[in-house]
Design goal:
The protein has about 100 residues and is mostly beta strands. The protein contains one helix and nine strands; from the N terminus they run βββββββββα.
C-alpha cells in the first residue's frame, strides 16, 4: 500500500518531506509519527500513520519537495506482504517537544 503525501493546508499543492523518522522494516502503529513535513511558509507538521503494519519502502528522500497525493512510502500488514487501504497517514501541526529540539 502506498502512503501518499497528505495536504497540510487547504489549497496547498506541495510540501517538503524534511526528515523520515522510520526506515524500511520498522513496525508502525496508529498514531506513530513517521516523518516531519515543512510547508512553503515554514510551518512544521508531523506525518502520522493511522494503520498498523511495517514500512516496506521509503520512496522519497529527506529534503524533497513533494506534490500532495504523491506516493512517499509503502506500508504492508505483514513483514513481506502488501496491503490496501484508502487513507493510512495524515499531517498534523508539529507539536512533539523532543522532535522540535532536534535539527532538521
Amino acid at each position: 500500500m502506498d502512503i501518499n503525501m497528505p495536504c497540510a493546508d487547504a489549497g496547498l499543492e506541495k510540501s517538503t518531506l524534511a526528515r523520515w523518522l522510520v526506515k524500511p522494516g520498522d513496525q508502525v502503529a496508529p498514531g506513530d509519527i513517521i516523518a516531519l513535513v515543512v510547508i512553503p511558509d515554514g510551518d512544521k507538521y508531523e506525518l502520522r500513520i493511522y494503520e498498523r503494519g511495517w514500512i516496506s519502502r521509503l520512496l522519497i528522500p529527506d529534503g524533497t519537495m513533494v506534490s500532495v497525493g504523491t506516493a512517499i512510502a509503502s506500508l504492508s500488514t505483514e513483514r513481506n506482504g502488501t496491503y490496501t487501504h484508502p487513507q493510512v497517514a495524515r499531517i498534523e501541526r508539529y507539536m512533539s517537544e523532543p522532535v522540535v529540539k532536534s535539527s532538521l
